[in-house]
Specification:
By secondary structure, the chain is of the alpha+beta class. It contains three helices and ten strands. The chain has a four-stranded mixed β-sheet, sandwiched between helices. Helix 2 (148-157) packs across helix 3 (163-176).
């Protein structure tokens, strides 16, 4: 069976600074019609940064939708059309002050494919050097360094709940064999 849905019409519902929301009418594989509400998002990046002692750079920040402080990998949103690797380098420097001698992709993550088109690109950074942080004016966070194995344990225990952090840490664990 062909599973592709064909867009018949699209209506813009909201056009904000970060999100765009639309309501589409689609033709279903069985010939029927349905509505799809879609959140367009420019995407984001996260960086699994390991220092020379195999500690991961982790940030803690208040996440308004959940009403609590979360611990996550350094991350940020893309501007529409921005190169993800360049954004990852920028976000790592802004949030942690770190620059990486080795920088490589860990792949992509679709965080909520049922309604959102966001793609998060994950990266590994090693051979770190440190300088000043440059946080955005509305960004407040604490930085910590945590042993990689301890962070893996926190992911597995459910202490770390951020999806991009979970995915990047577990991919890093498998790919690096640490």
């Amino acid at each position: 069976m062909d599973l592709i849905e064909k867009t018949l019409s699209s209506e813009k519902i909201f056009d904000g600074r970060i999100l765009r929301i639309r309501r589409d009418t689609v033709r279903l594989p069985n010939g029927g019609e349905a509505f799809r509400e879609v959140v367009d998002h420019p995407g984001g990046v996260c960086v699994l940064a390991l220092d020379d002692q195999n500690r991961v750079l982790l940030v803690s920040q208040f996440r308004y939708p959940y009403g609590k402080v979360l611990r996550e990998l350094p991350a940020g949103k893309l501007e529409y059309g921005e190169d993800p690797a360049e954004a990852a380098v920028r976000e790592l420097k802004e949030e942690t002050g770190a620059a990486a001698g080795e920088f490589r992709s860990l792949g992509e993550l679709y965080p909520s494919p049922g309604y959102c088109g966001e793609i998060i690109r994950m990266y590994l950074a090693r051979d770190l050097t440190f300088g000043e942080t440059h946080l955005d004016e509305d960004e407040f966070l604490n930085l910590e360094r945590i042993p990689f194995d301890r962070l893996v344990e926190q992911v597995l225990s459910g202490e770390i709940r951020d999806a991009k952090t979970i995915a990047a840490v577990l991919k890093g664990k498998l790919l690096l064999g640490l």
